[in-house]
Amino acid sequence: MKTAHFHPSGEIRVTEIPEPRATAGTVVLEVRSAGICGSDLHYLHGKNPWGSTLSWPRRAGHELAGVIVEVGPEVVGLEVGDRVGVEPMHLAACGRCGTCREGHGHVCPDRGLVDGQRWSSAGFSELDVALASHVHRLPEGLGFDAGALADVYACGVHALHRVADRDLRRVAIVGSGAIALTLGQLARARGAGLVAMVARREAAAVRARAAGAADVTIVSSDAEESGARVRDLMAGVGADVVFETVGGEGQALDTAIACAAPRATVVVLGAFWDDVRLRYALANRKELDLRFSNSYGEWQQVREYALALDELASGRVDGAPLVTHRVPLGEIRAGFDAALDRRRSDAVKVMVHPTGGIPFQGAP
Ligand SMILES: [Zn+2]
Ligand SMILES: [Zn+2]
């Protein structure tokens, strides 16, 4: 079968490797859609946003959906032919430590290790293997692109759960990528008051409003200017909850802190390339509450991934406007180039269709 190999030089080569087989407790799926995530772009620079040491060449693609083609021994409830979405294998938890027992396996110290081996999903392949416990049947009428996006929406669901104790009357979102759009849609579907999104480009702001991800958009790449404009919109004080979704090497955290009202909560979702400086004096003066939101796990004993599938299937959120590009596996490089240069391509989510895909289907 074909798979994409990432090399530390930034090169991506599509090569032939042996087909995987299902072992006990696992299934093999034919991958129909696999989204290119901002964190995948780090691999092109030889970096790893998850902090662990990488072995090269590396395979990737953790936002995936497809059709089960083989079911291993001891798997119950899944069959060949099932259309499924996958909770990526880098989120597999040990299930035994104190953190896991408290229901927070997404931050298990041994996350991503299965039987002592590091395991990541490799959706940029014709076939991929997953633990059956990480596989969810797609609700009727939900297409494979939407299934692949469930991973992104689950990150948004989790980030909102991180501020379940906070009032969502005034929300600011820094960034206008896929995570920002999912968060904006989810926050508004869950009754947020005013949602303001800070984008760096006018085209991205227009898309965010069209996608129903923001009530109002601000186009600026300057932290002070963004903060002043958010204050103008929000009772002169700023947002009660700010989500930072950009990461990279920019000063998105500065912008988030500038947009925050005194005693606000800033939630960091962005994956930064290195440790970042914090504007201590301003954050301290405002007495901000800084929280991180890492992937997703469970909420009140329900998988947040399953909650994301429900949100998509119900039509309360709509992933369709997020998918701007679709490429076959053989053109994955062009897909990555589009994702890397959003200014030129206006890409939000680039979907790779390793085995030929079908057009986006949202809720019925
Ligand atoms: Zn991702
Ligand atoms: Zn654990």
Characterise the protein shown here.
With 364 residues, this protein is an alpha/beta fold. It folds into two domains: 2-153 and 297-353, Medium-chain alcohol dehydrogenases, catalytic domain (Quinone Oxidoreductase, Chain A, domain 1, Alpha-Beta Complex); 162-292, Quinone Oxidoreductase, Chain A, domain 1 (Alpha-Beta Complex), CATH 3.90.180.10. The protein is 27% helix and 26% strand. Strands 3, 4, 5, 8, 9, 18 and 19 form a seven-stranded mixed beta sheet that branches. Strand 1 and strand 2 form a beta hairpin. It is globular. The structure holds zinc ion (ZN) (2 copies). The site of one zinc ion has 9 residues, from helix 2.
Question: How are the elements arranged and paired?
Answer:
Elements: E1 2-6, E2 12-16, E3 26-36, H1 38-43, E4 63-71, E5 83-86, H2 98-101, E6 113-114, E7 117-118, E8 127-131, E9 135-137, H3 144-162, E10 170-174, H4 178-189, E11 194-199, H5 202-210, E12 216-219, H6 223-233, E13 239-244, H7 252-259, E14 260-268, H8 280-285, E15 289-292, E16 298-299, E17 302-303, H9 304-314, E18 323-328, H10 332-340, H11 342-345, E19 349-353
Parallel strand pairs: 10-11, 10-13, 11-12, 13-14, 14-15, 18-19
Antiparallel strand pairs: 1-2, 3-4, 3-8, 3-19, 4-5, 5-9, 6-7, 16-17
The chain binds zinc ion (2 copies).
One zinc ion is lined by residues 37, 39, 62-63, 151.
